[in-house]
Amino acid sequence: MGTSASAAAVIGSGSNANAQASVKKDTTVSIPAPSPSQLDRDVGVIKPPTSIKRAAQRPGSDLMVQILKDLNIEFIAANPASSFEGLQESIINYGPIPNTMPELITALHEESAVDMAHGYAKCEGAPMAVMLHGTVGLQHASMAIYQAYHDKTPVIIIVGRDDKFFRQEQTANDIAGLTRAFTKWDAQPTSLKDTLAAIQRAYKEAITPPMGPTVIVIDTEFQKEEAGELKIPTYTPPIFKTINKKQAKNIAQNLMEAKNPRMQVGKLRTPEGILNAIKLAELSGCSVRTAATSGSMSFPERHPQSGKGDDTNYDYILGLESDGADVSIQGPTLLSNVENRDLTEIGFGFIRDPVIPPRRNLSGKNDMTADAEASLPIIIEQFKRLQTQEALDKISVRILRHEIANIESYETELKKTLEKKRKGWDSSPVSLARLYSELWPLIRDLDWCLSSPTVFSSRHHVGLWDHNKPYSYLGMHGAGGIGYCIGASAGAGLAAKERNRIVINIQCDGDLNYTPGSLWTAAHHKLPLLTIMHNNRGYHQEVMYLHYMAGVRGRGSDRMHIGTTLREPFIDYAKLAEAYGVQSEGPIENPEELTAAYKRGIKTVLSGEPYLIDVITEPR
Amino acid sequence: MKKLSLYILILTVFLYVPTINSATNISSGASLYLDHGCYSCHGYNGAGRHPIANNVSGIMTSETLFITFLRLRADINPLKPSNSMPNYSAAVINDQEAKDLYAYINTLTDKPPQIENIPTLKNILENAIRKTEK
Lengths: 620, 134
What we know:
The complex is a heterodimer. Chain A is an alpha/beta fold. Chain A contains 22 helices and 16 strands. Helices cover 41% and strands 13% of the residues of chain A. A 6-stranded parallel beta sheet of chain A has the order 2-1-3-4-6-5, with helices on both faces. In chain B, helix 2 crosses helix 5 (95-107). Chain B is an all-alpha fold. Chain B has helices spanning 2-20, 23-35, 39-42, 63-71, 95-107, 119-133. Helix content of chain B is 54%, strand content 0%. The chains are: A alpha/beta, B mainly alpha. Chains A and B meet through helix 15, helix 16 and helix 20 of A and helix 3 and helix 6 of B.
């Protein structure tokens, strides 16, 4: 068959063929004379059109981006998808081109996108956003959303919904229902106007205790719709529930009158809350227990008043997002979301079994369900009103005594800690104590953030490193879900990028293999992220569990590596990183090589590039 | 005469121990140490999170004590996952293997330098003291 014949075969039965046939039949058709512009073109006079008619002069998605700008959302992470193409185009092209507020961050997996937002929010005390594709993208992200929810971390999640023009499997009448049991709030607006209001509401809900991820499902039509003269609704900030003036006065009075008051500070919401906690501690001269080695947003560990203080017979203990013996001010727990949303009772066993009480306010004395951070300024104000010169003198003496006692205690404890770190110092594989110890002198004068959960690497930073910033240590995964670490670390890297800060990620090998694509994100967006592999070549927690199980059953414990270890072949993480564009080295088995490798890594990270060092380690 | 017999018995036991600690047995003990997961808590060199080198925990005081310890670990059916020391019955590690294991563990030593001879740790301590003096 010749070319013409093939073409004829292709178009033979189509409507064009019929149209041609009808033209041939109509012999009375007259051809019009060429227009002046056609004649101009024939002689080479070609002018571009003076205006292009755009699909929308002011697309709805531009307004959505403007809201994100107004809310100071710095980043929005996404894996690209058709259901939010309108919004994605606006994020890139609306405002100064390319727009960087929010900056679009390319994630290689939806789970990674949410993990990044999780890590970012724990550093900054403020949310970033993610975009997810319909049903399938949201399901990919669901585990990370679940963890952010349990970690009470704000994340703004925008889900694109294309209900008419794309694959029906990728849409649903109620997409947000997929994750409703473990998100704080969701909406699927039915107009562009409502969509704009919903984004603002999602932000407010996310940052109001109990903080958590919120979901807005946005139809493609509203993203592409001509907004015309539609105005962005006026944003009203959320109102945080505080204790009342009388309660504040009572607390202030007790702090003032106590001979040895104490504050126990848990996880506050923002860095501003920490500043106010410091202010109250310094005004009242109390000693302070911090949670800074357990997670972000707590009292500085090496503040002179942080520690047991001069005397451990405390006569008044105030808890701020922590259980104080005399008064506890704690925001609402996740339980407050459950009644209307958690239809599956997922992750809340005690609801099914009311015998086990909720884990909070164990003292049961003067518990106040209010936001501690928002309550602090009221207490401070009341305290200042009660101040007298006599009290000030007494407090300044108390501060000095606490400071001296805490310094002595710190030095004593540090010596004990170092004594423990010495064990196995020269061992190969590298001891985890040495892995952390060698790093500390190299980073202690830098602004650093330890982004990774450290329970699997035996928490050797505790007692050794100084956790003085709101983001010094970001704490655990949220719900123990593996695969969180590198994504959350990339999110911490986003927070660090323009703030002259570096991020340290002690990365478990098993965890990295879930979502290694975040390494590429770190390379692509030039994140100051130093990843040090805790490469014990296995899922070690499970190795230990299985050995115990085998011991109980007495049927042989020499096969417990099956299904729990990453051997035959070993995984080469330096090569893995290299493949994603991250500079790397290793595997390092000789502990003597650590410091030089760290120095290379830190130098690279300070220049704005990520770096990975593969270290073969003791299991724990 | 009875006294002499006792001395001979003690001497025999004493002389017997090195036979147990022969290279072959130590090598077998090394394999057992890895295969049965001892490394997972005690470290590849006995200096892990729960160190066993240098008899720091006391269970290496004698072979008998060590074997008794292996046999008497909890063997109830755990409801919760546990990462504590497993039970090792004679069906899993027989007495001879347990002796090999004991012999191998006795070869593990952890003699880290003192803090003042580890520049990193010395630096950490001195820096902390300098800071607090300020």
